[in-house]
Amino acid sequence: MVACSQDTKISGKLESAPQVTIQSPDDESTYNNAQVVELQGVVADGNGLDDIEVLTWSSDLDGVLADIEGGAEPDEEGLTRHSTTLSVGTHVITLAVEDIDGLSAEDSISVTVTEAATAPFAEILVPSAFDRYEPGSAISLVGGASDPNQAPDTLLAVWMWSTDGGALTEISATNPTLTGSVTGTWADAPIGEHSIHLMITDIDGQTTEAAVLIEVIDPNAGDADGDGVTVLAGDCDDNNADIYPGADEACNGIDDDCNKVIDDKDLDSDNHIDEACDQYVGVLPIDDCDDSDATTYAGAQEQADGVDNDCNGVIDDGLSSFDDDGDCYCTAAYCVGSINPACVQVLPGDCDDDDASLTPADLDGDGVSTCDGDCDDGDATLENLDLDKDGDSTCQGDCDDNDPFLNLLDGDSDGYTTCEGDCNDANVSLNLNDLDGDGATTCTGDCNDNDASLNASDDDSDGYTTCELDCDDNDSSLTPADVDGDGASSCEGDCDDSNAAVENLDDDGDGVSTCDGDCDDNQPNAYPGNTEVPYNGIDDDCVGGDERDVDNDGFESTAVGGTDCDDSDSSVNPTRLELCNGKDDDCNDGVDEDNTIDCTDYYYDFDNDGYGTGLSICACEADGNYRALNDDDCYDFNDDAYPHTGGSYYFDHRGDGSWDYNCDFLETKIDNRTASWDCDLCGFLNTDCCWDSGWESGTPDCGEVGDYNTGCYWIPTVGPCEPNQSSRTSVSQTCR
Fold it and tell me: Which of 69, 92, 114 represents a domain boundary (last residue)?
């Protein structure tokens, strides 16, 4: 018997080759080199898409276009996509895959790419706009031209002119140089304003025009305003006789002297502009208060000349002969004026001209001036003499300098003198001490100076004493009366007992009452000390309204209908200039737009070789094909063609029939031999063939094939000398 075994195991897997199909573009599709080609294919594998290890889109002309690591990885449906542009020519596009078992599949289509037609570029460098010429001048014309589809010297350049938008008249026609320079000369231009035009036309018939406005001045126009100066002589406004070179500048918003600077009025040549010229824009300060005096301007040294030299509005101030403190006295022997206009007469003898309280005058007639030590020259009872000889003067605090018993001595050592009101300087128990701090002393009749809560005096005159339950006899606003009838007196905390709406209750439970400053006792989120929350419509901290301009740049946030698009950054608002910093500085809904003040010129670099053409944008970063930092490329459709030195590579033509790959406008052949092959009978009685090695039909041009021969033979008596086939070399002439 043969037994069946249940222990047999099947290992490994069934290997299944992948499948691939290109879905787009269609076979034999046609594009131009500026169009984006959308590549799409589908990949399948019986073992699952995870089995696919290698996937490549490639062109037989441009090489690898994308791979599985470069963004062409198939999705869960097996679709692989890639967008690209292709060089000019017929491409075989291949989609190839390989799985982890080494099994592969591929599909190919043909795509033809033609040159994209692009309008040429034109610019006028000379003359500049509004240049002026004398009649008969030979006007030099200098311009530039380029075209990404053809060499500059194959373009047509035509210089033309017109007047007042009339018909164009040709000046000259030419081809630009290899570098795109276009020059010409316009002689005998008529008098008047004319437009100069440069028309650049390419082989596709597309024309680009540049134009500037110039003027040929009429020398016979005379002096229209009669100021003695013609326009040719520099008159910048021949309709105004007050305006001409050399005229006095005035503060009128006009360039009176034709020096191209408005209101630079400095008639006294002190390098300070007349302070009335507020429209002047320049480096000099606008601070001259007298433009007829070179010694007078802001910051000048004040002189004793009756003139406000330093333009501070005060004449001769800061001098010893001037009263600087306004007390009507100066320190010099002769006084010229005062800072105080009320001083009708200014006298000498001031002891300190920086202190108006010190003067030589004895205003109160007590025989002592403030310069002599009078502490108060407006009070004859206060002076520095000790009339009653008690050791103190009235200036030192003697309350009565005619009574030696009223003085600053403390006879009973209770801490008070008779001048301070000690009612009995011989009884220490009667004094001005307030032992219990209730505001009353034994001298003023405190009934119990050891109990601050008991006081018979009404110090605050509110009609209540402490004995009458006055809670604070130093504050008349605090009484035991409930004046407004809100249930609380000012002694019980009512901060305004004349207004029943203001009291010390906390209605909204935020811990602060209206007496404590709560600006809205019905809003628990509004109270003093709370953190202000911008844009919520609530005065959270009770300091005056909702916060709407957080960054304090003068613009309210867009969150509350304002124009500040970033209220946390004071450098962002509608008045700012756009910078390359990743922010919408000027709040125009754009970040780092083109032509910011710190942008970079990026030139059009179609072939991404780092060298661009004449087309450019000024941007914060490269944008698409605008990515080169120069415009030195001579052919922008082949990344092997750009300005460089060295290199031993030889190619077919770069795409436009030229082999100039280093942009030196030369084609370097791989074989530069120039000798011509020749073979003739020679020797004694023509018994041999003689030859010169060389090209049979001349040196081949780039892209051509030529035969180079180094020998020949003949059959005696039969025929002429013939090329020796074994010594002939066929050369394919490649160039760089």
Answer: 114
